[in-house]
Design brief:
The complex is a heterodimer of chains A (658) and B (187). Chain A is mostly beta strands and 658 residues long. Chain A has eight helices and 45 strands. Chain B is elongated. Classes of the chains: A mainly beta (658), B alpha+beta (187).
Amino acid sequence: MRFSIKIIASALIGGLLLASCGQSSDDVKKQMRGEGALSSDVAERVYVKPGEYDEYYAFLSGGFSGQLAVYGLPSGRLFKVIPVFSVDPEKAYGFNEETKPMLETTHGFVPWDDSHHPELSQTNGETDGRWIFINGNNTPRIARIDLKTFETVEIIEIPNSAGNHSSPFTTENTEYVVAGTRFAVPFQQEDMPISDYKGKFKGALSYIKVDPESGHMNIAFQVLMPGFNYDLSHSGKGKSHGWSFFTTYNTEEASTLLEVNASQNDKDYIAAINWKKAEEYIKAGKFHTMPGKHVHNLYSDETHSATSETINEVKVLDPSECPGLVYFLPTPKSPHGVDVDPTGEYIVGNGKLSADLTVHSFTKMIKAIEDKAYDGDAYGIPILKFDAVHAGTVKQPGLGPLHTEFDDKGNAYTTFFISSEVVKWKVGTWEVIDRKPTYYSVGHLMIPGGDSKKPTGKYLVAMNKITKDRYLSTGPEVTQSAQLYDISGEKMELLLDFPTIGEPHYAQGIHRDKIQPHTTKIYKLEDNKHPYAAKSDRDTKVVRDGKNVHIYMTMIRSHFSPDNIEGIRVGDKVFFHITNLEQDYDVPHGFSVLGAQTSELLVMPGQTETIVWYPKYAGVIPFYCTDFCSALHQEMQGYIRVSARNAKTKLTWSLDGE
Amino acid sequence: MKGRILMGLAGVLLLLMFLFPMWRITLIAPQYPDGLTMHIWVNQITGDEPGTLENINLMNHYVGMKDIEPSMFPELEIFPIVIYIVSALAFLFAFLGRRSLYLAWTGIMSVLGVVGVYDFYTWLYNYGHELNPHAAIKVPGQAYMPPVFGYKKLLNFHVWSYPEGASFLLAGAVALGVLAWYLSRKK
């Protein structure tokens, strides 16, 4: 009863406030929706004429879809959803024999994850368009996507970790991508009371080495940190190259009702890790080899297949044994994003429960370390004095700062979840220049190159957590949404709303010239090393091995070879190994067979893919091409004769009677 | 002396023909917005990208046209021999240095040129008209002969056919023959 009185009272006060401003609720509603605020030429600025190209690629994480979506900017058009951590029957990802190993983990085959932060590879601190990495949050993993093929080519599991959120931010030459643990967990995992959290739970921060040529990943080392929650990260660049920064929350080390119990400390920390120092300690043998079972999956464009290997141990560095490895920078109120400006000097802590924005100075941090300006320690890790590292504060820019990106003119842009806006401010003077509402409750933002040494200054994409009334309704679940702003002028301008898949968390953007000229158009048939490839009609055959039947089949406009197969029996396990003989851009063929409990195949030119099919009853079963490939696509079909288990039907195969 | 040099040069130009294609045929269709280009050489047939010939064949098999394969052109065997012979003749005549031989050589070349173009025409005619009766797509009265020279629209394809490097070398060689004959006249 008391509660409802409060509500009525606050509604009355709200009403009085509105009345005193002379605004009707309809006016406010219109403002909320941003109606009437656009200049007349915005349509032209996002319109990409038919046949012309967008200027930028934008890679938006698919959030709880587990995938990565590719859009064009400024149009906001969706080009491809790249399957990464979740199965995708459209592309047979996780369904065909070749890609099943990609989703293997120490828990077995995992068909889903929650993908948060795409991160482009960099050379000299600039995005280079070679690869894009993305984290799997739930079952901790990092994936690498090859931007020649736009396919997931590698997934590595992160051991001793839970909730891989502060990941996979790269160093300036992609020496490493990092992984943190959002949930502190017992280290090593064991059966213990949850209330024993304090001191027993730990947080591992992992450094995953990336081979500069092949891109192959391996876990170089883990830093064993106190049991805080490691939220986000960014690497140093320029003068701060060699360091990486992780935000923490729950330095209270609470294990229950975190919304209250993890929000008590005035300041949490940004952990500064000197990874060059870590390399020295590793070289000097100062590490512990510890259990760290993880699965590493690698896809080859030559065999068109993935393989899995299990690795049992990791190298672990204990900061209490490695002086100079880690320092804590006190930062107000559960900082979420940590963002480093293009010069590498300023480290922005987006204290999500604070009304201010705290910025630290890298130069001051180095000086504070030299001066040993400590304010005690946490589990043996020195805490630097706040005043000794603090560069400045953006005063009351908004409510609930989450993330910051930068442009090429010395400005920063920060998202505010609670006040639902993007705020532009000047790096160095900390003055607020402009603010624009988002619709609604923005999370991450992205400027192409905005977290690199070379940001662009044309577009900003805000990714919203709440959509409400922005689009045509689709029942209780509405589309996810991003918004495009023009940031080339002094004031930001909203240009476009566009729907997205999943829930977009972070994103990356890159100019088309860094990617489009290097696109793979076809796989060369002569380079196909798939063990079951049939590279011409002469190689086609059907081989029985007990109950396993291997069909070596080819596809080309507009037939399968063979397209009549007899001698299959109920109870067989039939492998269709299908090679697309085309050597022409944009001529994939599909394949599906009635009753398949997997998915279709979508085979690119020069590729071989395999689907398994279990015939359930005697009969003649059709199969067909699922991708409209040519004028005679409808004719691209065939039959497979299934006989009873004990039948003596001879194994035969043919095309046009031959 | 000028005549001998020019005649010898004509022989060299002929040998250079092996380094360049003679003719190009370019096809553009909605399915091939970037175009498919086929090059006809003295001794081979190529596409401008790997797989171009296969892709032309794949398209053309729907209307019953034959696959283009080097084996279907005896010319690719004969033509190089002819080039070697006439260039050897050019060197020989340059060595002998007789004006009438220059004229004779030019005459031989002209006849060969006409025969060559006629042969090309015949092949294109047959390629466009000899269709497989079991073809999937049959358009009554439609033939698919590409142009010998210039532009033509064939169903969904725009087709261009033009000479390339080696043809200009051939023409240049003939011109040099004429020039050799002209410049070595008695004054």
